[in-house]
Amino acid sequence: MFKIPTRAFSRQKEKYSPPLPGALTRDTQHVNLAQRRKADADDVFNRTHSPNSACQAIPPRIKLHKATIMSQPKPAPLEGEDGSPNGLIFVVDDNELLVEFAATVLESDGYRVKSFFHPEDVLKAIEAGEEKPALLVTDYDMTEMDGLALIVSCHQIHPALKTILLSGTIDGSMASPHPARVHRFLGKPYQPAQLKTLVAELLRSRPGRGR
Asked: Which of 32, 93, 191, 207 is deepest in the core (most CB within 10 A)?
């Protein structure tokens, strides 16, 4: 009489035996993981969109947040050097989400914004462009070049450029002794109104604005 080897028989039992009651199959584990991730994402979204939120994180759904930004009162527009409202603002950050957030805030007030994700592209645009920006809003902590170095390089090409340095890793005291001319500093995370206020102050203080 032929006998099945014990080891092979054991493997067959493991392979074909039904799961025990209450045991998690691989498909069930994937579903539970997806549900947990969705719950975490919803929790972050609810916290960042709460009326009492201090903007502890940049909301992941920028397009939904635009409605709130656009509904805020707008200041009287300024006339740019080219005759258009407010001149041109360059915004640069190697985090695309943060660039889109800042650009949305400023465009809601009628500013013309050009977005960049690489500091070198900012330098090329200032050097080659016929229209020079009135203001540069730059992050400090970027991979290719930090914000202070970018400001120094920009002023070598365009000395009249106004600048705002954004950072969640340093404070304004570190920018003060640096050769870069930082006109305003804003820590992250920030409220849209804070960025709007600094931009309005700088553009109104440009030569020819009566201040």
From this structure: 93
CA distance 25 to 51: 41
Element spanning 93, H or E: none
53 with 97, same domain: the answer is no
CA 182 to mean position of chain CA atoms: 20
CATH number, residue 97: 3.40.50.2300
Domain annotation covers residue 106: yes
Residues 42 and 69 in one domain: no
Structure tokens at 29: 């584990």
**In terms of pTM, does the model score above 0.85?**
no
Helix %, strand %, coil % of the chain (to 5): 45, 15, 45
Three-class secondary structure of residue 171 per DSSP: coil
pLDDT tens sequence across 99-156 = 999 999 999 999 999 999 999 999 999 999 889 999 999 999 999 999 999 999 999 9
Q: Does residue 22 sit in helix, strand or coil?
A: coil
Whether omega before 189 lies within 30 degrees of 0, making that bond cis, reads yes
Vertex 128: Cα angle to 123 and 129 (nearest 5)? 100
Structure tokens at 14: 């493991």
